[in-house]
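PROTEIN ENTRY
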Amino acid sequence: MMDWTDRHCRSFHRILTRHTWLYTEMVTTGALLHGDVARHLAFTPAEAPVALQLGGSEPADLARSAKLGEQWGYDEINLNCGCPSERVQRGAFGACLMNEPQLVADGVKAMRDAVSIPVTVKHRIGVDAVEDYAYVRDFVGTVADAGCEVFIVHARNAILKGLSPKENREIPPLKYEYAYQLKRDFPHLEISINGGIKTLDEVEEHLKHVDGVMLGREAYHNPYVLAAVDSRFYGAHTPVLSREEAEASLIDYARQEVARGVFLGGITRHALGLYRGEAGARGWRRVLSDSRRLATGDMTIFDEARTHLREAAEFIE
């Protein structure tokens, strides 16, 4: 979720769900060890629980970065072994690491030795033309031997050449049965599934076979899908927020951030799908995408955006 799940995105998602585990965008070890740590790691306690997702391959660098994550208050360190982008490949990490399971195991062990919070791994089921289930089974087995107990399985192959990362989110086909088989083969491990999941009904079906479900693009482009998660899967008794209530909380958050000098568009861009599928959503989204208006920090932009929702509702009536 590089360039997506920043602290403003997570703060918005936390408005919708109190219990869902949230993940940062992938942060490279180099960015932490040689860059602005606060810019990459600062977050608010209200976002918790939050996992820091790291990109890297050198065990010593991963251990130092994991330690920083723990010091900054993160609840989990997640090693990305699934991103197929060329930028990540040049750094010899992401999905490339699936071809070096012992190196991943060494990195996991180094991080576990450095921190007391959980260290988890997100990965694919294969790389390029490798279709054999044994490939991912052996990867998980090797890394589990280093002490990793939680694996998040993006259930499609990573294609390192010939497809863009965007295309690789749709191609090749998903193989959910590989994740299910991992759970059967490693019943003592926590196996979560990721890839192409859009509805809470689908989530419920997957939970018959695995321990957890990760939503990526759907949670970003249709964030209101998160609103019913707490009551449906965590036993929460609080009423499900309406879209309007979620927007009101977003406005309160945005007002505080703008007062601190934050660009309003850096907040609204994460909420553009809030009214997805609702009458007037396109007009609401168009107003909240106006960079010139957003640059002024004028909060009345939300009032103008809502006129499109009201007018659409009145037209339907």
